[in-house]
Design a protein that fits this description.
This protein is mainly alpha-helical. The protein has helices at 17-76, 78-82, 112-128, 132-139, 150-155, 157-160, and strands at 89-91, 96-98, 175-177, 186-188. It is flat, with a radius of gyration of 33 Å. This is Host-nuclease inhibitor Gam family protein.
Length: 189
């Protein structure tokens, strides 16, 4: 077995409480400098983004107008463009235009719990008519899911520990430095 010495930390370590206090002040000043630099960067990015949006605005308007004009032409001339080919895409030489069906979607209006109750009522009515197929079809519209409530497990950790596969660990300890006058708190675990 080979013994090795641990590498020395390559950081400045205070030797007294006064040095530690000085380092906290220096740390706070450094964090504030980082904040100033980040703020300047965000301001610069905001200006660049705003200018890019202004530069792109006339092009965006033109693109919308061109799209709408092409759509009106293509809708009016769909039969000429597609013929009886059964296709939904026409090649115009410099690009293609196409018509696509959007996938169907379900929209629910009102309280979801009320809709669920209505589905259960429809399923029960189907059962009353001896229509088990319809009842099962209605019940298929309802998704039931179960998940583990970890928050409740933490509240009753002793009982939760009795369940195979459940471990309640310690949250650990965290070291923090909060210099006076700093709004940012750095933490290390």
């Amino acid at each position: 077995m080979v013994k090795r010495k641990a590498a020395a930390a390559n950081v400045r370590v205070p030797q007294t409480k006064e040095e530690a206090a000085e380092m906290i002040a220096e740390y706070g000043a450094t964090i504030r400098e980082i904040s100033v630099i980040e703020l300047a960067m965000l301001e610069s990015l905001a200006k660049i983004k705003k200018q890019a949006e202004l530069d792109a605005e006339p092009h965006s308007k033109k693109a919308v107008e061109l799209f709408k004009g092409l759509q009106i032409y293509c809708e009016a001339n769909r039969q000429v463009l597609l013929g009886n080919s059964g296709l939904k895409t026409a090649d115009l030489g410099t690009g293609k235009v196409s018509w696509r069906h959007k996938p169907a979607k379900v929209s629910l209006s009102g309280d979801v719990e009320v809709i669920v109750e209505r589905i259960y009522a429809k399923a029960q009515a189907a059962l009353n008519r001896d229509d088990a197929v319809a009842a099962l079809s209605y019940k298929a519209f309802i998704r039931v899911s179960s998940t583990v409530d970890k928050e409740n497990m933490l509240k009753n950790a002793d009982l939760a520990r009795t369940i195979d596969g459940v471990t309640i660990g310690s949250g650990g300890e965290q070291f923090e430095i909060e210099p006076f006058g700093a709004e940012i708190s750095e933490a290390a675990e």
